[in-house]
Amino acid sequence: MALKALRAARHGGSILGALCVFHRELGDVFRLPLPGFRAVMLVGPEANRFVLVTGRDRLLWRPPGDPVARLLRRGVLVTDGDEHAALRRLLGPPLHKARIPGYAPQVVHWTDQVTSRWKARGPLDMLDEMRRVALLILTGTLFDADLTPDLDRLWPAILRVLRYISPGAWMVWRGAPQPGIAAARRTLDRWLHGIILERRVTQDPHAPAGDLLTGLVRSGLPDARIRDQLLTMLIAGHDTSTALLAWALYLLGRHPEAQAQARAEVDAVVGANAPGASHLDGLPYLGRVIDETLRLYPPIHLGQRVAAVDLAFGNYAIPAGTRVLYSIFLTHRHPAFWPDPDAFDPDRFLPERRREQAPYAYLPFGGGPRNCLGMAFAQAEAKLVLARLLQGWTFTLEPGRVSLHMGATLEPRMGRGAGVLMRVQPRTGSPA
Q: Of 26, 52, 387, 391, which residue is least crowded by CB atoms under 10 Å?
């Protein structure tokens, strides 16, 4: 079985292939046979409920030495207990769905800024292009800052930080070398502390705090704690949206009939207007494409905790100190809960079929009290961006195999380091 798993990992380009073999051969609970890595993998809705709800108070969010915790320090993503709850209350309002109508024009603006570079160009890497879109949208809406002048300078540092927090040698070797990470972190910290200082100087204390950065500045948090929240949003917030948008375009390129249906819906509902919050409910098929993309390729595909005490899950004993992994990817493709699980079928998410889904069988944004703060924002952002892109462009997938890459999120990868290469063709007379 180990040889079969190794072959699957090499063929698929990531260890997800090996995990699929272990799951198929060993069932929904299995240990990972890695030296120096005491871990158990739990798969399925009940496993997800156990980790996210019923057992959460006996599980630590991050193990000692985890690069995510070292990078984000006391960011909301890596805190526990009362501190985490207080940060959620502070960060929640700017991400609430009630703010989406105000953000929608900015989402379209930043999308158009990126696509303005596409005219008369050859194949584009949609992973890179959607990263630019996601970064500009996040900083433009939540920070009220224009990243454009600094994007090229910050780009290598952002990519280096993402590699730092991706699965790697640190999982079995705490002291694994990380060349370049200190310089990358300093580059990002200088930019973040710069916009914090500028906001402290320029903000009008009598005006409403319309964005996340202004709210943090007014909260009384010291600059170092504000930095931790901003970096959390910058890294975690943009990278998940990047992966979702890139995979959605890949699937629309692979399934031209779905692209045509989504485009026809956008044309009928949005017409020559810029997509806005008022159009979101009128794009149900595009919404189902997004939902199915998240099922097949959940950006946060694997979660981990550490058992704080001896635990039991069903008939299995989990000693204190064990890493407890739960696989959203494997749950989303579990044949017991998803017919033909590897097929692309947006109509799985028709209302009548969605009601048949088992609780905790679908959780692209996590679940329980620590579900993703930015879920409503991310869903609206994806629909607005894709609607705008479909208004103005057709997308054709370049030949070549696309594999799964386990980075900080689950990314598409083609040969020679590319994400997903597509030819983009402007639509004649398009409104975009």
A: 26
